[in-house]
Structure formats: C-alpha cells, structure tokens
Design goal:
homodimer, about 475 residues, Rossmann fold, 8-stranded mixed beta sheet, elongated, aa-tRNA-synth_II (chains A, B), Anticodon-bd_dom_sf (chains A, B), ligase (chains A, B), Histidine--tRNA ligase, mitochondrial (chains A, B), nucleotide-binding (chains A, B)
Amino acid sequence: MALLLLDLHPEKKSKSNFQLKTPKGTRDYNEKEMAVRQNLFNTITKIFQRHGGVTIDTPVFEMRDILSGKYGEDSKLIYDLADQGGEDCSLRYDLTVPFARYLAMQGKKDAQQMKRYQIAKVYRRDQPIMTKGRLREFYQCDFDIAGAYDSMIPDAEILKILSDTMDAVKIPFHIKLNHRQILDGIFEVCGVPPQQIRSISAAVDKLDKLPWEDVKKEMVQEKGLAEDVANRIGDYVQLVKDTPSLLQHLQNDQKLMAHEGASKGLADVKLLLEFLEIFNVRDRVKLDLSLARGLDYYTGIIYEAITDKSEGVGSIAAGGRYDNLVGMFSGTNKAGKPKTIPCVGVSIGVERVFSILMSRRNINDIKSNATQVYVISVGDGLLKERMELVQELWDAGINASFTLKNKPKLEKQWLACEKEQIPFAVIVGKDEIESGKVRIKDMRSKNSDQGGGLVLDRKDMISELKKKVDQAFY
Amino acid sequence: MALLLLDLHPEKKSKSNFQLKTPKGTRDYNEKEMAVRQNLFNTITKIFQRHGGVTIDTPVFEMRDILSGKYGEDSKLIYDLADQGGEDCSLRYDLTVPFARYLAMQGKKDAQQMKRYQIAKVYRRDQPIMTKGRLREFYQCDFDIAGAYDSMIPDAEILKILSDTMDAVKIPFHIKLNHRQILDGIFEVCGVPPQQIRSISAAVDKLDKLPWEDVKKEMVQEKGLAEDVANRIGDYVQLVKDTPSLLQHLQNDQKLMAHEGASKGLADVKLLLEFLEIFNVRDRVKLDLSLARGLDYYTGIIYEAITDKSEGVGSIAAGGRYDNLVGMFSGTNKAGKPKTIPCVGVSIGVERVFSILMSRRNINDIKSNATQVYVISVGDGLLKERMELVQELWDAGINASFTLKNKPKLEKQWLACEKEQIPFAVIVGKDEIESGKVRIKDMRSKNSDQGGGLVLDRKDMISELKKKVDQAFY
C-alpha cells in the first residue's frame, strides 16, 4: 500500500529511516569486479575440468546438526537461521562438510568415487577486516577426490591441480607439506598426552606467525605441557633443512620410526614426492614439520601454498586428506565399521587470488560487457533504422547495442561506445540509408587512416563485421 | 575432540542420531543435473551479453529493513537470520529489491544507466512441492534495464531478450501483455475506490486459474466491492479479441480514454508494438486485460510468457516496468522529489526451464565431465608410464584422466572410459612403451574398423589427439 501511495503521490514520500548498506562483513561487486571474478572462475574451472572434475550444488544452508562438532572452536562463527517454526538450519561454513554429507547420502556404489569441484559462497561470523578482504560472505573454491584408490595417487593429482591453478592465474608460489601421522607421531614420541594432541597441534600451527618462544609459552603456561616435552617438540618443528635432508634425518630417527603412524606417514611423503616428480611439480614442494593446519578432520598429508614475496607473503591455497569425515555421516556397516569414503582435497583461496588480480589492473581499463558493435546515427535520430540494424546484428549472433533514445546526440553515442570499450561502430546517416550503405569504424585505432570508416553495402555488413569480430575477440 | 577419537578408534563410533538430509524445500544437484544447469546458464548468459548486459553480485542476505514492505502479504515467506548479536538480516526474496538497493547506493551519475543481469539463488519459506519443482531455495535469472530513456525503447529490448532466451532454449511460448496504468484506469473508471485498487487487482490476477464468477465473488463478498462495479470490471477483463481489435475497442471507449493514465498506457502499448514489429517479436505478444501481476511495484507495462501446450501450459518468464522502486531507497532531492531511476526488467523462470530441459533428456546420456582422453594400460599396471602420459596431455591443455590405482584391471579401465563417456583412449602396454609407440582409440565408434586403434609414434600423440579433440568438441 505504501508503494501505491508513492506511485500516486511521489512528492509526498518522506525519507525512510533505514540504513542504506549491505550487512556487516558483506559487500556488492560491481560489473567490472564481476568481469574479473567470472574470468577467474572460468580459468579455474578449465583447470578443474582438465583433471576430470565434475561439479555439484548443495544448499546454502544445512541442518544445524550436520555442521555441529566439525569446526572445533570456530563453531561459534556459524550463522544460524532464525527459528520461524520448522527445522534448525545454519548457513554453510565451508564446502567440505556439505560435500561429505552429500557423499554419505548417495547410497549407490557409483558415488563412492568422484572428482568434484565447487565454487560457491560460504559464511562465517568472524570479525571482518574489509580492507584486507576478510569478509563474512566469501567464495570458496574446492577440488576433492573421493574414493578408495591406491596410496598417494589422488594426493599427487590434487597437488598437481593446485599447481596448475596457481600457474593459470600467474601467481608464484611454493607448497609447505606435512603429514598428520608424522606430526601426531612426533607429539606422541615427545610425550604429549593423547587428549592434548589436537590442542598442542593448534599451538604449533601458529609458528608461521609467532616465534618458537611464544608458542612454547602457550604450550607450557596456557596448556600445562611439561617443559621438557615442549623442548623436544621444539627440536622437531624448528628443523630447517632441504626436503631430502629432512627426510633422511627423520629416517635416521629410530625412536620416531618405531612409531607406526609416523613411519607410515614418512613412506607416504616419499611416495608422493616420487609422483610429483613425474607431474613436474616436485620442486614446488617443501616438507615443513611446523605446518599443522587447524581443522580437526585431516588424517594424512596436509599442505598449504604460500605466495612468493612478489605478491605479499600469505596462504593462497590449502588442503589435505580426510579419510573419516564421510564416515561421520554414513554410519556403520554390519561389521560395525564406519562406511566411510576416503577423500583428499584442496581449497583455492579464490578471494585472495581475486585481490591480487585486481591489484594488477586499472579498474577503468576493465571491460565489463561483451558488446562488439555499437550502432550510431548521424543526424536526425533515425531510431527505427538503428533498431533495424541492431535486430540484424542480434539475429546474426553479434553482441550489439545502441542508445535507447529517440534523438541521441552524436557526441553522446561516441562517448557511450568509448566508455563501454566497444571495438566497432556501425554508423548511419540519411545518406547511407538512402544509398543502402553503412559505415564501419574500428573504434580501437586512434589513428585517422580509416577516416570516416569503411563504407560498404548494407548487405555485406554482417559478413564484414563477423570477420572483424572474430579477429578482435579470438 | 570427537573427531580425534573417531580417528584413533573408528570401530568405537556409534551411529549418530541426526537426520541425514537437506533442509525442507532444498535439494542437492548431482553432476549430471549440474552439467545441464551450467549449460543452461551459459546459454542464457550469452543472450544477455548479446544485448549488452553486465552482471553484479549482491549478498545472499540483506538488512531486514531493505526487504520489508516490498512484497505485500508474501513478506511472511522471508527467511530471517537468527539474532546472534548485531544486525537484523534476512535472506533475499528476489533479485529485484537488492538491485534497486544497489542502484540507490551508487551515488555517481554513471550508475544511473545500467543493463544488468544476475543469475543467483533466492529464498522463500513457501510450502514446497518438490515434485513440481517448487523449492524454498531456487535460482532466479533477471535482466533489467535501469535508466531514464525514451518511451518504450528499453521495454521493447527487454521483450526481445525474453524472446531470444526462450528461442535459445527451444521452448515455444507466447507473451501476455498489459499495462498497470490501463488497468488502474479501468478500475477507477469502473468506480473502484482508490484504496482498494491493489486488492481488486490481486483478485483479477487470479483469472488465469479461476472463472470470472469466483473472482467476482471474491471482489463482492470478501472485499466488499459494489456488484455493479464488479460487473463493469468483468466487461473489461473478459474481453477476448485479437490485439488490434482490442486496441481499437479501448480507443473507442471515450470514458476510459478520458482517464489520463489509461490513455497514456494505451499510447505506450501501441508504441511498444511498433518497436516489437521491428524486433521481429510482435506476433509473440497478445494484449490481455486480465493480466494483473501480483507485485506492488510495477508502474507501466507488465507481461508474462506462457509456454505452449507442448511443454505443459504455465508461466515461464515475467516482468514489467517499475519506475519508483529505486526511489524508495535513494530518498528525495532538494526539491523533495524522489531521486528514482526508472527500470524495466524480466525474470526468466530458469528452474522451470531446467525441468523442461531435464524432461527432454535421458539422465544416463548426460556427460557430466569434460574429459577428452582416458589413459589405459594393458598388462602390468604401468602406473608411472600412465602418469607420464597424462602429464604430457595436461601440459598440452588436453583434459585427461586415468585410473588412480597401481594395477587396475583392463576391463575396469574400459568401463570407466565408457561410463564417463570419454571419446578417446590412449592405450599402452609393455610393447608400446619399449618401441616408443602409443595406441589411440576412438571410443565413440562401435564398429571394429579401427581394430586395436591407431598406432603411432609417441612424439606424434599430442598433435594427433588435438586434431581429434577439436573435431569431436567443436
């Protein structure tokens, strides 16, 4: 009813007292940003498809129980939907848990093997830092290989995919690699009580930002770990060696090698590196015992790709193997074992990549439309003639626009064509109409060689423009 | 911590008591459905770009105040986020109101003109009918032209875009057209009190599902309209004539033509039809005085595209002109007039289109991956040799896969290749490896002409496959 009143009496509208903004931690993306984003998504999708990836879609919100108990302390950052009668739902926090839920719901044998990618929004009620691009609504971009395969083969392909993706967006990087079973082996061998392993692991994960002394203090003073245990951990996680030397060092560590998990983890890493050699990405990877990764659900190799200094150092992709997550949803089989599906995956920090790509561009130079031809009239408006021309162009599959006015000024038409970075103009005046001609002008060349443009018979317009457009766009 | 225990003692996991499902009214889309959906989105995007469209992105949730008072009675269907401290937010109900909010926030003159499209999810707590595809989370697909242009030129392009889109997805249709000012003029001339116009209009909107007698009953008995007023309305909205005759009939109606709005509306429709003639879509459009459209915010032409009988009759796209919506957000200028931006747009019923496309396909025939080549070994596994081959293919930009096992059975490799509908296989055995050869087989041809396939030097593999792939995919 308010609208009807507005409609009939626009002059009576008083300014409303709401705030004209997007919610905290969210933002709009304008057409130029979206052109860059979509180009980025397409580039990544191509790499994902090169590796046999297929995509699925899951709802933006899930049953609350599906998400609970998956994210440790960060569960407090989950957005809940209001109780409006009905089910308790929450916005998804990542794409991995919904994917595991999806796999568990596919009863059939078919779905037990899947290379799936997904580029979609996730939600976290974190303290936003808009200037650093830390938002509450952001895209994640995941590739995961689900299925029981042979050791380290899917893991190697995932790291290859990570590398191919970074190469495709031209971001220099290296990969820190570790293995949960090596890490847990170290903690056990050093004497960490089993129930403290995840919490001590979380402390180690801070070593990329804090010096060892601070991390040790957290372990000993906050978490009550014995100092000698902490010191032994420090000896491991502070080891700085090239990967072959580090592998040899661990291999020679009889106490650690007597730990079944650590020994298996080391064999995994060695085999993985062999495969990565074949995939031409071995030299991108560095074994780093201080990499721990926050999420609880990893069970095998873990990794993090870091940009090189040229782009400001920071994590740009990460992932790992999580063999038990699907089992949390799919229950147990008759023998009482969880019907799990082993998985390994990577999440590309696509928002970070987007920021880097934007920082390389002058926003004014970004063309946001795909228009190839602008139809311009000289003189008396010629609206219907311009409409006939765009109609011909559209029917021929050419992306064409014109000024949606009866009698647009010539100057304004030129300006629109230039502002929208449209490469070709079709120009008509009374003379051209009467003699059955059109003028075609290449708007990209600033030199005056072409004078008023190429004059040709109307019937040849489409074939000539198709030639020009093909050259300009491909 | 639960996860750590699961990790260490998987056999102890007891079946959880949560429901393994997606929330009511939502669903997953598997990889085959997604292949069809993405193809559909790409097809529509191409049409939108042909008409100069650019895209933007807005958050999935908005400040609650932005949405309130925009959807009449349907506001009760809006999903709210829980109050977790902070702002009151709700999931978006459509893409139009967020677009109007976006436009109002762009202060600059630049954003006053925009052809924008958006294909994104919206949310409605409606009673879902999954079998009919009525969901609580679904995609909308909108194209809108914002800006002060000359009469009916953008409106004509919007109807052209609607038509081009339906043609691109090969769905036969026709368009019902009406004009809010003609309709409101009819109501006023018939004697409907101003404050009842929207409510009577909502009753008329039911004429596509109910007979006139029922609609009249609603007007008279439920809404208290005088019976003679209802009868006069009935004389108008039941008029069945071809469009030129109907236009003539209204033109001859002196009482109606004395109404300023109705007379302007009629002039609009006539001009629009002239333009649609030039755009070759005039014969798709039929003036229909019984079309009212539910939403409050329309101010000019309104339309609805209906599928022809072959696809089961139903609305497949709809829209109209809404000149005052942006003004509701942008406040007033110094003269006290709302700083509005006139808009006209169309929403393609993309979920309905998707259902029609799926009903035309056998789901098993849908190829969900983009893989072009499958690498197969005969004999002893040859894992590293297969890895070297896929690596070569990937580096050449060819989409390639292989079985992620050490010693896969030949049969299983063929099966994977067939199931994933991969057109070409590269086959190696010990003999080929030793003699520096590979075999290429076209998996699409069932005849045995090719025997064991084409044997060629390893160094010629890429160029031969590129040729074959180009032929197969383009």
